[in-house]
Write a structure and sequence with these properties.
Blueprint (H helix, E strand, L loop, with lengths): L2 E10 L2 E11 L7 E6 L27 H8 L4 E7 L9 H9 L4 E5 L8 H9 L3 E8 L1 H4 L6 H13 L2 E6 L4 H10 L5 E3 L13 H9 L6 E6 L15 H11 L4 E4 L12 H10 L6 H17 L1
Helix pairs in contact: 3-5, 7-8
Length: 307
């Protein structure tokens, strides 16, 4: 049978090169799902240096490449991925950009930029030309207290609305009121809340915290990632204890504003698997219609990041 080849990324002479990885039968259709939340990094610390603000020994696992991700995604129905800039690279998005450039049909990116720089809007626009469709903000209480007085943060939200680029917030419930006010100020800006706003990290789904997240549903451009199952609630597969939260968010936002994400490589540590994360949405939530599964697993992320 005639075959074509998949591609992988390897660091060679200071650049990413392509080489054969696994054969695929000619004419084989790609699976349809999109993973909206994955981190990747390479073992080459010279070409892709870790920020001086992070200890190299704190990087665990030591490497997680697109080839590693492809192994996890095999036979799960996932073919496209949104890459989230890893914190220990800070504002150096070069590895993520190299991965996107090597396979732009498969990948899009969420970058991190320095909002204190006067040219932050231009930086966002330039990154958008390289496959970046969103910008990550660490929306924790010690940071969001500065947002409403920060020209740079205001510029990011304004530019996001003008350029159809998402503001992606890693947050917890304490910061949701500030995000609420920003969404009201910039109603055209797409906002993506990562990992259910981390509700359930303490083991229980707090109803008051969930109410705060649900309140954001009144803004048509606010989206929520149903992701990082390994870290929430009982923190054990099959993660069905998260079903009531997902159902309430579906009822409030609609399935077309929810998107699934694995949060690899952390989703594939210890007893947790990629398949278990996929299966929760595709097989273990009987209240979801087939069209709603399509929304969570593909359509919403496609609209926000691949459109």
């Amino acid at each position: 049978m005639k075959t074509t080849t998949r591609r992988r990324f390897v660091a060679t002479s200071g650049a990413l090169a392509l080489q054969s990885l696994l054969p695929r039968a000619s004419g084989e259709e790609l699976p349809r799902w999109i993973d909206s939340h994955v981190h990747v990094w390479d073992a080459d610390r010279e070409t892709y240096p870790v920020s001086a603000n992070f200890r190299k020994t704190a990087i665990k696992p030591s490497v997680f490449t697109p080839a590693d991700l492809e192994k996890e995604q095999k036979s799960t129905g996932v073919s496209r991925t949104v890459l989230i800039q890893m914190s220990f690279f800070e504002f150096d998005n070069s590895y993520m950009l190299d991965v996107i450039a090597a396979d732009p049909k498969r990948f899009r990116g969420v970058a991190i930029v320095d909002e204190s720089k006067a040219d932050v809007a231009e930086t966002m626009k330039k990154l958008a030309e390289q496959g970046v469709r969103g910008f990550r903000l660490y929306a924790f209480p010690d940071r969001v207290k500065e947002w409403e007085g920060s020209n740079g943060i205001q510029q990011m939200w304004k530019t996001g609305g003008e350029e159809n680029l998402a503001i992606c917030c890693l947050t917890d419930s304490l910061s949701l009121p500030v995000i609420d006010r920003m969404a009201e100020r910039y109603p055209k800006t797409r906002v993506v809340i990562d990992h259910f706003a981390r509700i359930g990290m303490g083991g229980n789904i707090d109803s008051q915290q969930l109410d705060q997240l649900v309140a954001l549903a009144r803004f048509p451009e606010v989206y929520v990632k149903t992701s990082a199952f390994y870290a929430l609630g009982k923190k054990a597969p099959p993660y069905t204890d998260l079903a009531p939260m997902i159902r309430e968010l579906r009822d409030a936002f609609g399935s077309d504003r929810l998107m699934w994400g694995s949060d690899c490589p952390y989703q594939v540590q210890n007893e947790h698997t990629y398949r278990a994360s996929v299966d929760l949405v595709t097989d273990k939530l009987p209240f979801l219609k087939e069209t709603e599964i399509d929304d969570l697993m593909r359509n919403t992320a496609e609209k926000v990041f691949f459109g």
